[in-house]
Design brief:
The protein has a single domain, classed as Rossmann fold, CATH 3.40.50. Helices cover 42% and strands 15% of the residues. It contains nine helices and seven strands. A seven-stranded mixed β-sheet has the order 1-3-2-4-5-6-7, sandwiched between helices. Strand 2, helix 1 and strand 3 form a beta-alpha-beta unit. Helix 4 packs antiparallel against helix 5 and helix 5 crosses helix 6. Keywords: Hydrolase. One of its GO terms (molecular function) is hydrolase activity. It holds the Pfam family Abhydrolase_6.
């Protein structure tokens, strides 16, 4: 299956992987700036999100992204990923290291993480709301949980729209097929990695981000004092600059294409 996706710009490839409460539209605030700065920017909807339907058999999100890159003729790319997309990026970098130039992970998930009390409580509340048919309540629970204090009305409405779409697509599926996870030995990832966390995020994701530099060869961790779980939506301009500064070092665009 080909993932629904957008492509813009020319230059080194940058793949934007969305969080589990969003879809590729979460990158609207960064999309134009990255393309204008001299990058070929690719943003897919993972299966069951946005315009990509749910899987019709066993599948792998990391395998789907690798397949999309192959279809687009991309040999190497920088992966910029949020939350669940961060887990997918790490799985891809571990299983197909030749594809990955660098990683920038915003409040990432990680393979093998065992949820702590707060994350388990959230999942139980979400499951209960969905089981009761309270889609509005489940959407609002996600909006309140994942956006920090800088998440204004526009960010909240974006998350509300994308999360509702994901619930509608996934709940309408006749069957949910299991995902096949690739081997994910993070110690084998040699690509440079920027790991960003938010001081107002749930403890699970703060701890994951803080500990990733211990597991990766070339990772550094930056905590944003103002951020929740979705900093690219909470302060989009600031995060765009953070990403561009990192990309200019790890995957510099051709000088002729730089317009930022």
């Amino acid at each position: 299956m080909s993932l629904s996706h957008d492509v813009a710009g020319d230059g080194p490839a940058v793949v934007l992987l969305h969080s589990g409460v969003c879809d590729r539209r979460m990158w609207d605030p960064q999309w134009t700036a990255l393309a204008a700065a001299g990058y070929r920017v690719i943003r897919p909807d993972l299966r069951g999100f946005g315009l990509s339907p749910v899987a019709d058999g066993p599948y792998s999100d990391a395998g789907d992204v690798a397949g999309l890159l192959r279809a687009l003729g991309v040999e190497r790319a920088t992966l910029v990923a949020s939350s669940y997309g961060g887990r997918v990026a790490l799985e891809l970098a571990a299983s197909r290291p030749e594809l990955v130039t660098a990683l920038a992970l915003l409040c990432p998930g990680v393979p093998g993480h065992v949820p702590g009390p707060e994350l388990r409580s959230f999942a139980e509340r979400e499951d209960a709301l969905l089981a009761a048919g309270d889609l509005d309540g489940a959407v609002e629970l996600n909006v309140e949980t994942w956006l920090g204090p800088e998440g204004g009305d526009e960010a909240r409405e974006r998350v509300r729209t994308m999360q509702r779409r994901a619930f509608e697509v996934q709940l309408a599926a006749a069957e949910q097929f299991p995902q096949t996870r690739p081997e994910a030995d993070l110690a084998g990832i040699a690509a440079p990695c920027l790991v960003v966390s938010g001081a107002h995020d749930v403890p699970d994701f703060r701890e994951i981000a803080a500990r990733l530099p211990e597991r990766l060869r070339q990772a550094r961790h930056v905590e944003l004092a103002w951020a929740g779980h979705l900093p690219s939506l909470e302060r989009p301009d600031e995060v765009t600059e953070l990403l561009l500064d990192y990309l200019r070092v790890t995957a510099p665009p051709a000088r002729a294409n730089v317009s930022h």
